Task: structure prediction
Amino acid sequence: MNAESTSAVPAPDDPTSQFVAWVRGAAPYIHAFRGKTFVVGFGGEVAAGDRAQRLAYDCNLLAALGIRLVLVHGARPQIDVELARRGLAPRFHHGLRVTDAEALECVKAAMAVTRFEVEALLSQGLPNTPMAGSYMRVTGGNFITARPVGVVDGVDYQYTGAVRKIVAEEINADLDQHNVVLITPLGVSPAGEIFNLAMEEVAEAVAVAVKAEKLIYLCDAPGLLDADGGLIESVTADEAQARLASGDGLTEDLGLFLPCAIRAVRRGVARCHLIDHDKDGGLLLEFFTHAGVGTVVSRDPLFRLREATVDDVAALVSLITPMEADGTLVRRGRELLEQEIERFTVVEHDGVLVGCAALYPFSEDNAAELACLAVTPEYRRAGLGDQLLKRIERRARVQRLERLFVLTTRTAHWFRERGFSEIGPEALPRKKRELYNLQRRSKVFVKLL
Ligand SMILES: CC(C)(COP(=O)(O)OP(=O)(O)OC[C@H]1O[C@@H](n2cnc3c(N)ncnc32)[C@H](O)[C@@H]1OP(=O)(O)O)[C@@H](O)C(=O)NCCC(=O)NCCS
Result:
């Protein structure tokens, strides 16, 4: 290496390297989310000022990355201001506003102004801002049919409504045109009456109806916290339900949004994220970094072990290429991966492929090779390697194979600690022995199944 090329290699803490590493780290998520629908619900306190400006910047970027965006805004503080301006007092029952005819006029006025303000923010395009050069078309419409909530505990909610139906095909048609859909939580009954709806319930119903990949609530807390105040990164719907029942540490927003999040993931939305509305770039950090910044609610645990399909080839190539380059794994071409894809088991986290292993049977010798075991560095030491190994062992047993062997140059101890013992290459099945690469000088380990 000459002096020139040495100086061209930036140190790992150099800002350029960090930038490049960040963009590369975000790449799998960018691939995974392009063309997916995200529904973002936020209260009226996010619809104005700095928070709204930052949200507009982030939405602009998400839309530019090909994410189909539906935004649902609230207007609770704006409605309260309007009521106060007219000398009226807000009325709530079980956290839900009671909307009489006078309050409905305030609701309509506050919702209309808030909507226009959000639209205006999304329509900016000033140079020297993150919106430069962008043109986001924002659309809306009569997508929601409502019904009255009615009388609860003797309290008549009057013009407070619940969602009856969402016209999902029209929302999807708008998203197909690359529009951002902005929804105001007002609904109309078949009789033509207007109803005031809760933002969180509208966002939930829309996410379910359009089969969104993600439902996101921007809220007044970093997410769910554990007993020591640490952020809980992910919970299943059942765990969230238990938390809701205990009521521990639930802020006003979490108390309102969590039931909607639980219902949404149980009705088919893949993930629901609770993100702090004060976190600058919260949406970007949550979706494009490994750690994320909020709490994600999912119906099932976030990690999923499954057999690979041909659609996984591109992700597998990106996962194993760095380990092939440093000699940890034997080089396999993309073509070979395509041909042998059904031999692979993969593990994904939140839809992104983070580990793999393959099983190559040698039936005439009652044996099989475990090959290409790999876990992406950020996800190591979480037991995924172990889970992949167990799955491969199970697959081999189902095929009534008695021995599992592996060739390794650097992971000998890992296999030893998992019941493998070293043997000589001469003990390999004949076909494998013929292919054994002497130069690589791999150690051979075997485990009886
Ligand atoms: C080997 C590998 C798959 C393990 O994945 P993982 O998800 O981190 O595995 P687990 O979480 O189940 O196990 C982690 C444990 O293995 C240990 N370990 C990891 N690599 C090891 C190695 N090369 N030698 C010995 N132990 C190792 C870790 O230190 C950790 O133990 P500790 O928590 O007690 O310190 C992963 O390190 C990897 O992808 N390595 C590069 C590819 C490779 O070597 N593949 C095997 C070639 S056939």
Notes: The longest strand covers residues 352-362. DSSP finds 15 helices and 23 strands in the chain. The domain at 15-301 is CATH 3.40.1160.10 (Carbamate kinase).
